[in-house]
Write a structure and sequence with these properties.
alpha+beta, 7 helices, 2 domains, six-stranded antiparallel beta sheet, Tumour Suppressor Smad4, elongated, Rossmann fold
Length: 291
């Protein structure tokens, strides 16, 4: 087969220790190379190959690849998003986990999806991301871009967290709760959903603010436009309180810390099954309509 004219290099990022990964990977790598693609894979993927091989860090894969193939669950995709979004690299996600709202292709769809994608026939969804800035006093001590959510939460034995929420500089309310989830529409089917938040279509320009087990039952989830600047200040004790970003990174907080949430200038380009709608994916994952 002649070399692909649309993509000339592809990066493979996978979750290690998947039982079927060692079966899927060798023929997949051979298939990709037979199509004239330069193939790069991470250290986790290399560890799953039957013959010892050396992978490269994911940041280097993103620097050398024109597209990323993600094999795993949503957690694997979120890790890949951290390195892909800043370079505008599209991700083709294949679900090798259990649930997987974001990894919408099945293993059985892997090769047909690759054929269509490499031929330039694919549907892509640009997913909004959060820009999360952490301020301690007047100093910004961290800044991250996340796809799903930023969560202020506590360890299992810590007391309730006391937080103050402001939107566009206007005071909204004070929370006493186990935590607070600030999510994108993409992240609305993750932690926010578990905490009782609404499902929001990824095409809606909104952020979701969902309290986790609030002390006051009238503290309900709120949906705001994503042009807003959301500020969350930790007003109470900071013992065992963390800011968790996409479930990938945890930052210990101090009393008085302020978290500023805005729409990120970055977005994630996610390749989607052309004949599978968002609602079809929801029905499949959430088992809607089943007895």
């Amino acid at each position: 087969m002649p070399a692909n004219q649309n993509f000339k290099s592809i990066g493979v990022i996978s979750r290690p220790r998947r039982a079927n990964l060692s079966t899927v990977l060798p023929p997949l790598l051979e298939w990709l190379e037979s199509r004239g693609l330069r193939v790069f894979y991470d250290q986790e993927t290399a560890a799953s190959l039957p013959i010892p091989a050396k992978g490269i860090p994911r940041e280097e894969i993103a620097a050398q690849s024109e597209i990323l193939l993600v094999l795993g669950g949503d957690g694997t995709l979120l890790a890949a998003a951290r390195v892909a979004a800043s370079r505008g690299i599209p991700i083709l996600p294949v679900n090798m986990g259990s649930l997987g709202f974001l990894t919408s292709f099945t293993v059985e769809e892997l090769y047909p999806a690759l054929e269509e994608t490499l031929a330039g026939r694919f549907s892509m969804s640009a997913r909004v991301m959060l820009q999360v800035q952490l301020f301690r006093g007047k100093e910004m001590i961290d800044q991250q871009h996340v796809l799903n959510d930023a969560v202020v939460n506590k360890s299992a034995l810590a007391r309730m967290i006391e937080l103050e929420l402001s939107i566009e500089g206007d005071f909204v309310c004070r929370y006493r709760a186990d935590g607070l989830v600030l999510a994108t529409p993409t992240g609305s089917t993750a932690y926010s959903l578990s905490a009782g938040g609404p499902i929001v279509h990824p095409g809606v320009e909104a952020f979701i603010i969902t309290p986790i087990c609030p002390h006051t039952l009238t503290d309900r989830p709120v949906v705001v436009r994503d042009a807003c600047c959301i500020d969350v200040t930790l007003t109470g004790s900071a013992e065992s309180v963390f800011l968790t970003l996409d479930g990938q990174k945890g930052i210990p907080l101090a009393s008085g810390d302020r978290i500023s949430i805005t729409r990120s200038p970055l977005s994630l380009n996610l390749i989607q099954p052309p004949k599978k709608s968002y609602f079809e994916i929801l029905r499949s994952k959430l088992k809607w309509g089943e007895a």
